Backbone:
């Protein structure tokens, strides 16, 4: 892995541009690259993939800043009252995001544009070439890691988490799934300030929206659970839909996802590290989320139980929309029913490894989430 200065130089040469914008990204970039270089134990594919990913993110920053420089009015785009999905991972939030994306009156962050927000979609004539690139990437994942594709379903034009936009500031949990990065992980969880990260995400959303009618955004990312104070500073009018599931099931499931993804980039996977990493991040995240809700923000949340999403998904979205004060149109309802039928027909049953595989003892996991599980029962009583 090259040094961070070399990767920035490579991005400049690729784009012919020089302005990366706000300097907030540098700390995360330097810590990430150092951790990739000294800790990650990447194989040849991992070395190539991580270098390419970092250069691509830097190139996107350069292009985003260039668009804002040439068109300052992009900064006037309103991003108002977004509905943001969050909660522990593996709680049905992906299925929920796909259902919400069927509402033609709203706007989701699509996979093909999340990794490459520039140029603004409104400036592209004809089929956007980024869609074909995303389709190829989805197909490659299905070929090289079919189980990870099954664990985290994705389509090129379907909704995507905010991870890629957060990675533009080099503060994103997505990197932790790729490789063994303990230094970066510790900094990210305890020392990183994600307020600039969310400001840059907002900037990317403005670019994506520019030239099109403004519609309410539907966003989603479990990571937001850890940084609600930071998120709230940048999106003060956001409302949240929080999905819930037994944390003991969650931790094993997400460690399994990290194993499938990381296994493509390294032959040296520390399984107990994956268990400990996810237990620490998500227990700390839930403590922060409980505190945030208790500081006068509870009425900004709508709560959904994982089991309800499995048995009555359309009804749960309808109740969510009643809480939002928005209608579920016949077109929206028909789209949700069609997507759910297709999803259910092709859904694969996942069987996860024994918790001990990841060094996890469920009787030790549950006490870490005792306050949350008590509150979860209250929140989802409806």
Residues:
């Amino acid at each position: 892995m090259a040094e961070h200065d070399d990767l920035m130089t490579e991005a400049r040469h690729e784009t012919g541009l020089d302005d990366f914008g706000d300097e907030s990204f540098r700390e995360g970039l330097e810590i990430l690259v150092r951790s990739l270089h000294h800790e990650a134990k990447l194989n040849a594919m991992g070395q190539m993939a991580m270098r390419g990913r970092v250069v691509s993110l830097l190139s996107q920053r350069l292009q985003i800043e260039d668009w804002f420089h040439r068109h300052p009015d992009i900064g006037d785009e309103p991003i108002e009252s977004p509905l943001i999905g969050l909660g522990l991972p593996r709680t049905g939030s992906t299925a929920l995001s796909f259902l919400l994306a069927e509402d033609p009156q709203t706007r989701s962050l699509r996979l093909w544009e999340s990794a490459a927000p520039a140029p603004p979609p409104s400036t592209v004539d004809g089929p956007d070439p980024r869609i074909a690139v995303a389709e190829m990437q989805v197909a490659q994942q299905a070929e090289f890691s079919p189980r990870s594709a099954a664990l985290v379903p994705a389509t090129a034009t379907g909704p995507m988490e905010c991870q890629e936009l957060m990675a533009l500031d080099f503060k994103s949990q997505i990197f932790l799934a790729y490789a063994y990065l303990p230094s970066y992980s510790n900094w990210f969880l305890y020392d990183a300030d994600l307020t600039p990260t969310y400001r840059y995400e907002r900037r990317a959303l403005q670019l994506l929206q520019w030239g099109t009618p403004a519609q309410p955004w539907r966003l989603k990312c479990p990571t937001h659970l850890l940084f609600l104070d930071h998120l709230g500073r940048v999106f003060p009018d956001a409302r949240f839909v929080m999905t819930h599931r037994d944390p003991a099931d969650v931790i094993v499931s997400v460690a399994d996802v990290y194993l499938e993804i990381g296994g493509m980039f390294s032959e040296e996977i520390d399984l107990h590290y994956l268990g400990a990493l996810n237990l620490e991040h998500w227990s700390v995240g839930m403590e922060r989320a409980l505190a945030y809700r208790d500081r006068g923000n509870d009425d900004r949340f709508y709560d959904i139980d994982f089991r309800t999403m499995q048995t009555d998904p359309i009804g749960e979205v309808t109740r969510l929309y009643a809480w939002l004060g928005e209608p579920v149109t016949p077109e929206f309802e028909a789209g949700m029913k069609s997507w759910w039928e297709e999803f259910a027909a092709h859904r694969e049953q996942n069987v996860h490894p024994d918790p001990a595989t990841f060094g996890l003892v469920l009787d030790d996991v549950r006490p870490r989430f005792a306050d949350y599980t008590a509150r979860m029962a209250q929140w989802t009583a409806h």
Summary: Residues 44-70 form the longest helix (27 residues).
